Amino acid sequence: MELADGEVALRPIRVRDGKAWREVNQRNRDWLRPWEATIPPGLVGTPTPSRPSYRQMVRHLRAEGQAGRMMPFVVVHQGRLVGQLTVAGITWGSMCSAHIGYWIDRAVAGQGVMPTAVALSVDHCFRTVGLHRVEICIRPENAPSLRVVQKLGFRDEGLRPRYLHIDGAWRDHRIFALTSEEVPDGLLRRWRQVNRGDTSGMK
């Protein structure tokens, strides 16, 4: 499965993406480290935390994907791998929701790549998968990521204190969300209108 709009595409992460993924991720280490999830030390039943290998990460993501709990993608721009986007925590029943996490190569940040990728994934979640709600959780200090949800018109639902263990400590996060009723014509269409400066059709 591939989702695409112009020069931006999402496709499932693969083991053979390892070389390209490692190059982008390692080149952006200093930029990404403050926003990456970590395992709290001393957690009962958890061995000493260590960063998984790329192959281990992909196997875990794909197993979760096959179980229907996750959709792991790489972000491609102009044919080149530039980041990662994961739809995770997929829950059905009376909730029908998920959350989205992402990172991108600093070299293409601010060019509309990640807002397009997020819009593609949200439309897929609502229109194809059948989810009702999507959340994005962001540290208040993460200005580039905040700009993504602001550009897309996600609703700010407030602060969750010490919500996730990030970069070695429990960090506050702001929660942003959309439900399917808020984007009846699709989030990608709304993002295109914002890009063109035409907000007359926005709801």
CATH superfamily: Gcn5-related N-acetyltransferase (GNAT)
Fold-level CATH name:
Aminopeptidase
- CATH class bucket: Alpha Beta
Computed CA radius of gyration, to the nearest angstrom? 17 Å
How many helices does DSSP assign? 6
Mean pLDDT level: 92
Terminal-residue CA separation = 30 Å
Question: What portion of residues is helical?
Answer: 25-40%
Strand order of the largest sheet: 1-2-3-4-5-6-8-7
| Helix/sheet category | alpha+beta
Largest β sheet strand count, sense and barrel closure? 8 strands, mixed
Report the β-strand fraction as a percent range. Answer: 25-35%
Order of helices and strands: EEHHHEEEHEHEEH
Spans of at least 5 consecutive residues with low confidence = 199-203
Shape: globular
Shape-level CATH architecture: 3-Layer(aba) Sandwich
